[in-house]
Input
Amino acid sequence: MSNCCNNTKEINIENVVICPSCKNKVKNIKLITLKSMLKPSALETLNAKENHYFCLTKDCDVVYFDTNNNMYLLSDIKVAVYQKDDSPLTPICYCFNWTKEKIKKYVEKGITANPVEHIRENIKENRCGCEVNNPQGSCCLGNVTKFINQLT
Output
């Protein structure tokens, strides 16, 4: 007699991590990003052995936290965080200083280079440093494109 369960495939269930403050989904963040973004006083409390996460929720004061729910707030970060800051001077592209204001000028008046093309050219030349310049620790092109689409 055969066991009917022997041929079943294993089901991989991805652990969903949520922010301890706002309870929204978060993304993994590399340690190098935290080391670059945290102010010295916050960096002294960093546990490099834990996994860390980035909260994108606009109205949540938590930017990063670890698996023990040790949190790093906006006040612990060296730069304004695009996802959490409405200022027109806040960068969307941290590597090449494409601020909300500068991108808005491009969309409205076309007086600057195309931000997406400019960023892509620099990526092609291996000039970006998203892991150390961008609080989200990854490429900004999605954010830049989304912001432009919201303006048009």
In short: Residues 80 and 90 are 6 Å apart (CA to CA). The first strand starts at residue 27 and ends at 29. Confidence is low (pLDDT under 50) at residues 1-13. The chain has six helices and six strands.
